[in-house]
Amino acid sequence: RTNVYSTFHICWGAQAALYYHFGIPKYPLEQKLSGIYSHKVLNPYHPLVRGFDDAYLAPHSRYTQVRKEDIEAHPELSVLTYSEKAGVHIAAKNNGRQFFVMGHAEYDRETLAGEYFRDVNKNLPIEIPRHYFQNDDPKQEILYRWRGHASLLFSNWLNYFVYQTTPYDLSSLSHV
Predict the structure, then answer these.
(1) Active-site hit among 11, 60, 89, 149
(2) How far is it, in rounded angstroms, from Cα 5 to Cα 163?
(3) Which of 9, 21, 40, 90 is surrounded by the most beta carbons within 10 Å?
(4) pTM, rounded to two decimals
(5) Cα torsion angle, 27, 129, 68, 88, sign
């Protein structure tokens, strides 16, 4: 709050930040959510999702979730994107100072495969990441379909909420 103008929390970091700053709990899932899921943009006029298609794909890999209704109970927060299968993907503090991304837009082509095969080799109970391998078959090609929106997400955050809005003198900010 003192030295950084806008923060971008990812996955467990997003869930931890929502709990720390707003008391929003996380809930365990029955099984690991792993794969590439379709999301709907709920607020197409928000600068963070400027240029996004109405529906886009993003990776998820987690054992817990936050609930949309818990976020919506805080008037200072907004859910920007949502998936029927994966839940909240992007939430934001309305002043643009904090963003909470429950998925992994930063994942490259091989990341989910690495996690999956690591867990298989440890004999952990793990399902094949959904919609990630061609025909959901880990012997087939990886379908890398989230790169464009991932790049846009990070570019929009850096442009609209870091470069254009961070004041030169952070000490002049109120610590909200």
Answers:
(1) 11
(2) 10
(3) 90
(4) 0.91
(5) positive
Integer Cα distance of 42 and 108 in angstroms: 25
Distance CA(62)–CA(160), nearest Å, equals 28
Candidate list 21, 74, 106, 131, residue with the active-site label: 106
Catalytic annotation, pick one of 39, 46, 89, 104 = 104
Is residue 21 annotated as a catalytic residue, yes or no? no
In the three-class reduction of DSSP (H, G, I as helix; E, B as strand; rest coil), residue 119 is classed as: helix
- Six-digit token string for 98: 């904090």
d(CA 1, CA 101): 19
For the stretch 18-27, pLDDT in tens is 999 999 999 9
The token duo for 167 is: 């004041």
> Which of 66, 92, 65 has the alpha carbon at shortest distance from 78?
92
